[in-house]
Amino acid sequence: MAWRLALTTTFQNRLTPRELLARIRAVLRRQANELPGAPSQEEAVIAFGKFKLNLGTREMFREDEPMPLTSGEFAVLKALVSHPREPLSRDKLMNLARGREYSAMERSIDVQISRLRRMVEEDPAHPRYIQTVWGLGYVFVPDGSKA
Q1: Which stretch is the leader sequence (predicted)?
Q2: Residue 119 forms part of a structural domain
Q3: pLDDT for 47 beyond 80
Q4: DSSP label at 41?
Q5: Is the pLDDT of residue 42 over 60?
Q6: pLDDT at residue number 78
Q7: Pairing outcome for strands 45-48 and 59-62
Q8: Are strands 88-89 and 51-54 parallel, antiparallel or unpaired?
Q9: pLDDT, tens only, 59-92
C-alpha cells in the first residue's frame, strides 16, 4: 500500500530519484517500528485485575473509572508492567522510569511504589500486583498470584 502511494506521488509530482528514495526510506522506517501483529503504542493496553493501563494515552482506569497518575507514577508503573514477572532492582527501575542511576540515599522509587500500591492493591500491606522481592526490588505480577 505504501509503495503504491509513493509511486502515485512520483508520477503525479515528478519526484527526483533522491526525493523518491527519501520517501521510501521514511516508509520503511515507520514500518520497522511496528512489529507485525503487535499493537501500536497508541493501542497498547495492559489489563490486570480491575485495572487497565493505556500506554499510548498514559491513562489508567479502574472498572472504567479514570484514575489520575502523575508522570512519575506512570513511568514507574509502565516500567513494571513492561517487564511482567521479572524482578526489577531499584537501580533498574530508576533507569527504566527516569533514565538515570539510582542513588542509595534516594527513596523516590519506594515512594512511587507505595503510592501505586495504595491505588491498585486492595490491601497495600499485602500487595498482589506490585510485590517486593526482598534484597532485590519489585516485581509486577499481572494475575496477582504469588511471585
Answers
A1: none
A2: yes
A3: yes
A4: G
A5: no
A6: 94
A7: unpaired
A8: unpaired
A9: 999 998 999 999 999 999 999 999 999 999 998 9
Which domain covers residue 111, as residue numbers? 69-140
**CB of 85 closer than 8 Å to CB of 57:** no
Establish if 92 belongs to a structural domain. Answer: yes
Report the run of H or E that residue 114 belongs to, with start and end. Answer: helix 108-120
H or E element at residue 11? helix 2-13
Q: Give the span between the Cα atoms of 6 and 134, in whole angstroms.
A: 55
User: CA dihedral in degrees (141, 142, 145, 147; nearest 10)?
Assistant: -20
Query: What CATH number should be reported for the domain holding residue 96?
Result: 1.10.10.10
Domain-located, residue 16: no
Model confidence at 45: pLDDT above 80: yes
Rounded alpha-carbon distances, angstroms, from residue 18 to 3, 15, 144: 16, 8, 54
Model confidence, pTM: 0.68
Please, what's the largest Cα pairwise distance for the chain? 67
